[in-house]
Design a protein that fits this description.
Blueprint (H helix, E strand, L loop, with lengths): L6 H4 L1 H5 L44
């Protein structure tokens, strides 16, 4: 900015090679999503314990 030149001259790589692939290798594919944990026996989804938790098991 101090030199007053456009940003195109500061970073010619991005301006002259807009469609070229990046130099660094692509990031590794994310690991497969882990299976959801088993539902706890204390608060089964089919029978929410509204007495102790008014909001239901959703608050967990």
């Amino acid at each position: 900015m101090a030199t007053g030149r456009p940003s195109r001259t500061v970073r010619p790589c991005a301006a002259s090679l807009p469609s070229s692939p990046p130099r660094w290798p692509p990031p590794p594919s994310p690991p497969p999503a882990a299976p959801p944990p088993p539902t706890p026996a204390r608060a089964p989804a089919a029978r929410p314990d509204a007495r102790s938790h008014p909001a239901g098991p959703r608050r967990y």
